[in-house]
Amino acid sequence: MAYASRIISHSKKLRNAPNLLRHEQALLVRCFSFSGQPSVGKRDEIRRFNCHGYVTSEGDGVTKSFITKSLFGAPQGRDFSTTAVKGGNSIAGLGLNKLSVSQVLLRRGFSSSGLPPHQEIGMPSLSPTMTEGNIARWLKKEGEKVSPGEVLCEVETDKATVEMECMEEGYLAKIVRGDGAKEIKVGEVIAITVEEEEDISKFKDYTPLAPDASSAADTGPSVSTPPQKEVAKEPVASPEPKVSKPSEASAEDRVFASPLARNLAEENKVSLSSIKGTGPDGRIVKADIEDYLASRSKEAPAKAKHAAPADVDYTDIPHSQIRKVTASRLLFAKQTIPHYYLTVDSCVDNLMELRGQLNALQEASGGKRISVNDLVLKAAALALRKVPQCNSSWTDECIRQFHNVNINVAVQTEKGLFTPVIRDADKKGLSTIADEVKQLAQKAKDGGLKPADYEGGTFTVSNLGGPFGIKQFCAIINPPQSGILAIGSAEKRVVPSSGPEQYKFASFMSATLSCDHRVIDGAVGAEWLKAFKGYIENPESMLL
After folding, report:
1. Is 486 helix (H, G, I), strand (E, B) or coil?
2. φ, ψ dihedrals at 460, nearest 5°
3. Which tens digit of pLDDT belongs to each residue from 394-419?
4. pLDDT by residue (tens digit) across 100-150?
5. Which intervals hold domain Peripheral subunit-binding (PSBD) (predicted)?
């Protein structure tokens, strides 16, 4: 704490920290090197930042916290510290889908070798699932002045493309990762800014240290030093201890193997040391060599599957960020979640009649039309409120049952599959749900979704019936949720009639519920489908 007092007393800008902390929507993680004095720029605003780099919201109110002990607690090396200010909206809002530089990982760098004070801008983490991102393009060039509110670059995340704004005045000294740079790990340095224009040229050959190298260093700055003149020195001869290394032949001789196995291994150029013997006392026998050769022959075709035949014309389409994330999450879900499926057919004649009446009212009042999918979302939300066991998720310690019914809606775009969320769908009217679905679907297609638009869902609905005419399908659960509803198309069927005619036509829609058996037992899933079918076949009950 004595060291902290000296730092604070020698920094005029830190003495103004209480005034600076009144600003909202910002985050700064500072790195202080013990080889130089820290220098803090203007508009230093701080919001809590977790170990993954993801910004979390602390709620309403104002809480001012000063530099914590963790900043100066370590006697060696450097450390990071975060201080928090609570107030305003959470980072999930992100304004007009923009990210300020002060909401990413910023590190103040100081070097005893002569580098002026500078700031490393790291790749931000904009969602719990984001581990890497891409640079779509830089809107500022090296050497240009940057001012608060100006857009530095566009970052492609696993969900959307976000404009990264600058919140501090300075100069863009170095672009470390240029336009189109892909698979940049969260926290990896992408640019350098300085406070003085004359310092720009000193970062021409600047290269930041790799994360492993910077973490391994006990002391010194987190940045590399500028190139220095090499001084020719005569090499000092140091005697190297002579260590006798056993030859490959001697290593093979120490392996116990039958003569027949040795001959077979030599013919096929197989090292005996890589084979585990199954004979007496671990002795390698002929069968062991044959098994090894058989397994190696099976691996070769598997590797060859990725190579296309020479006479086949093809195009390799690079994976987009959202495609990789979707593939990873769905593979994880299918491998770790015990899925089972329940299907029910519901008569939608009454639903279609009610929809027609509601749309007539909407058109008269200038509102947007209500789709079948909007009615399905409302019915699913009310069924979740009626059977809350399905509005839950599995954790290692417990089954977490949610009190809010937030339904994700699957939206297919050219960039991939997005699942924006309708929050508290059970409490909203059909008109409100219709408006939100249309707005979020358009934002998904434009790549403008913000984290608040897709995070926090407790259940998912996917509809391939209306748009594509799919009769029935089974969807993969979106973790950490425990259920997803797959909606098929409606088809006319001949059913018995209660009137004078013996038969009549009726439209039926197929709905399949995918359940996590760890959370939802079969009877509970059936109970939920029964409630859902009741709302679909008697849609007036949804308006009560």
Report:
1. strand
2. -130, 145
3. 999 999 999 999 999 999 888 888 99
4. 444 455 555 554 456 788 888 888 776 666 778 888 889 988 889 988 888
5. 256-293
pLDDT digits (tens, 9 = 90+) for 180-220: 888 888 888 888 898 888 888 888 888 776 654 444 444 44
How buried is residue 192: exposed, middle or buried, by Cβ count under 10 Å (0-12/13-18/19+)?
buried
CATH 2.40.50.100 assigned to domain 118-202? The reply is yes
Separation of alpha carbons 133 and 135, rounded Å = 7
Which residue is listed with tokens 């004595």?
2
Helical ranges in 305-371 per DSSP H: 321-336, 349-365
Per DSSP, the three-state class of 232 is coil
Q: Do 382 and 426 touch, CB atoms closer than 8 A?
A: yes
List of residues 6+ apart from 343 with CB closer than 8 A: 472, 510, 511, 512, 513
DSSP state of 392: E
The answer to whether residues 132 and 187 touch, using CB atoms and an 8 Å cutoff, is: no
For residue 256, the model assigns a pLDDT of 82
Alpha carbons 12 and 373: distance in angstroms, whole number: 59
Side chain identity, residue 1: M
Q: In a 3-state reduction of DSSP, which class is residue 34?
A: coil
| Residue ranges per structural domain of the chain | 118-202, 323-543
If we measure between CA atoms, which residue out of 494, 424, 434, 492 comes closest to residue 459? 424
Torsion sign (Cα): 148, 153, 157, 162? positive
Residues carrying an active site annotation: 517, 521
Number of CB atoms found within 10 A of residue 203's CB: 22
Q: Could you count the other beta carbons within 10 Å of the beta carbon of residue 116?
A: 17
pTM of the predicted structure, to 2 decimals: 0.57
Residue 516 has phi, psi (to 5 degrees) of: -85, 115
Report the pLDDT value the prediction gives residue 480, as an integer from 0 to 100. Answer: 93
Closest C-alpha to 211, from 122, 328, 137: 122
Where would I find the H helices in 1-89? Answer: 2-9, 12-15, 17-20, 69-72
Side chain identity, residue 259: P
Please report, rounded to a whole number, the percentage of residues in the chain having pLDDT higher than 70: 67
> Going by DSSP bridges, is the β-strand pair 170-175/63-64 parallel, antiparallel, or unpaired?
unpaired
- 439 in the Ramachandran plot: left (φ > 0), alpha (ψ -120 to 50) or beta? alpha
Nearest residue to 127 (alpha-carbon basis) of 97, 166, 91, 163? 91
pLDDT score of 447: 82
Furthest-apart CA pair in the chain: how many Å?
111
Helix, strand, coil content of the chain in percent (nearest 5): 30, 20, 45
Fold type of domain 323-543:
Chloramphenicol Acetyltransferase (3.30.559)
Tally helices (H) and strands (E) across the chain: 15, 24
Whether 45 and 24 have beta carbons less than 8 Å apart is answered as yes
